Amino acid sequence: MLSGQLPNVVPLQIHLLNEHQIVFDPSSNGQHIVEFGETADTPLLAFFKANQLPGATGHLAQTLTYQEFPEQFVLKSLEHNPQSKSWHLQQSGFALG
Prior knowledge:
This protein is of the alpha+beta class. It has helices at residues 30-39, 43-50, 55-62; strands at residues 8-9, 73-77, 85-89, 95-96. The strands form two sheets. The protein has a two-stranded parallel sheet. Strands 2-3 form a two-stranded antiparallel sheet. The protein is elongated and about 40 Å long. The chain starts with 7 loop residues before the first strand and ends with a strand.
């Protein structure tokens, strides 16, 4: 969140397929870094996956643009890969993309 700004402003990155940035520990195993990067979902990739979800969540996702997404969904990191992101329906609050 930008310092003290309401509503929350979520920066939404865009990138070409397989051209997203990853952050890694240079002392990590090279194969681990490659696998980590190949499986990482960025906010943009998570947006596309959310649009493929079945049911009401997927239907809502399909009605929103990428920029509108933070108004209804919140971005969370996955436990097994903190660089990988997933969108979840917001329980409360409001944000802008």
